[in-house]
Design goal:
The chain has eleven helices and eight strands. The protein is an alpha/beta fold. The longest helix has 19 residues. The structure holds NADP nicotinamide-adenine-dinucleotide phosphate.
């Protein structure tokens, strides 16, 4: 699959209104630009994101796109609900939404921490593979510790984790452990919810139904998913400094994606795109030259000075 994929949370909900025609145009632009990996979830728009991808792929029968979905967040976050019976029901719904017999990749969607230590859960996931409902399974995690627990399971194909110039902890242990185990790494929230584009100011107003307005302190879901867990004012200032590291011909957003792709062990990065222009610009980051050592050192220094204290101990 392409090293730059597409995150499709935006096509479902929580980011303000996105029209169906705009959503399909984003998928079209990404595919045209060479993107062959879409990340979705059964809960994005309560199935809307999956359904739009399913419709898009039916209309593009020759497109060789790998679709990763996620399951587990349409019910209470209770480890007792992570059963084979529920997994069958959840994957049946995603198969219908996406219009496929076999799902390419299903990820547990940031489940409660005890789920990672349950042999029964991983046995049930193996059964889904045996039943040919899914080709492979992975996990989407909040913390590095959860990632390491999941990587130790022999059947885990992939780990999805927040990794960007404002979230460096996965570089310490998670990426090396995944590489060693042959587990794919899907880097999510790569632009720190758009902060790393450098386009927001302290006065920017987000729509009331955009999580960047309503989840800044983790009111609805894990705080780390919004602006990567960085306080907004701090993030805006740090983003100005980050923008100064962009090489000629690259935007700050593209520079952030290029930085992620340069980290050993990353399989793909999945920026979310609100419109076709963003999808195209993000795909083009794959063609940029690697950032020089000095820029890598400057990212580390920026993180240590401005960001580390807020996020490093939490996730
Ligand atoms: N728990 C989980 O498993 C989980 C959680 C979060 C995300 N994800 C996945 O990861 C994907 C990516 O994360 P994310 O979408 O939360 O955050 P992200 O990719 O860091 O940020 C997306 C936002 O960045 C801005 N943007 C995108 N491309 C841009 C460009 N070229 N130039 C300027 N601005 C640009 C847009 O903001 P504007 O809207 O302001 O234009 C867009 O909405 C999601 O779509 C989803 O598939 C999974």
């Amino acid at each position: 699959m392409s090293v730059v994929g597409l995150g499709t949370w935006q096509l479902g909900a929580d980011w303000g209104e996105v029209e169906e025609s705009d959503a399909l145009a984003v998928l079209e632009a990404a595919l045209d630009a060479g993107v062959t990996f879409f990340d979705t979830a059964d809960v994005y728009g309560d199935g809307r994101s999956e359904q739009l991808i399913g419709r898009f792929l039916r209309e593009h029968a020759d497109a060789d796109v790998l679709v990763a979905t996620k399951m587990g967040r349409r019910v209470d976050q209770d480890p007792a609900l992570y059963t084979l019976e529920n997994f069958r029901a959840w994957t049946d719904r995603s198969r219908a939404n996406l219009g496929v017999d076999r799902l390419d990749l299903v990820q547990l969607h940031c489940p409660p921490t005890p789920v990672y230590s349950s042999d029964a859960v991983f046995d049930a996931l193996d059964t889904l593979v045996e039943e040919d409902r899914i080709a492979a399974y992975g996990v989407s995690v909040e913390t590095c510790d959860e990632a390491l627990t999941a990587i130790a399971r022999p059947g885990t194909a992939s780990v999805q984790i927040i990794l960007n110039p404002f979230r460096l902890k996965p570089l310490e242990q998670v990426l090396p452990a995944a590489a060693e185990a042959g587990v794919g790494v899907i880097a999510r929230v790569p632009l720190a919810s758009g902060l790393l584009s450098g386009k927001y100011t302290k006065d920017t107003v987000f729509a009331a139904d955009d999580h960047r307005a309503f989840n800044r302190h983790g009111e609805a879901f894990d705080q780390g998913e919004t602006f990567s867990g960085v306080d907004y004012a701090t993030g805006v200032e740090a983003a100005v400094e980050f923008a100064g590291l962009a090489p000629e011909g690259a935007t700050p957003a593209q520079t952030a994606l290029r930085w992620i792709l340069q980290q050993p062990g990353v399989s793909t990065v999945i920026p979310g795109a609100r419109n076709p222009e963003q999808a195209r610009a993000n795909a083009a980051a794959a063609d940029l030259a690697p950032l020089p050592e000095a820029a890598l050192g400057a990212v580390r220094d920026l993180y240590d000075r401005r960001i580390r204290e807020q996020v490093h101990h939490r996730w």
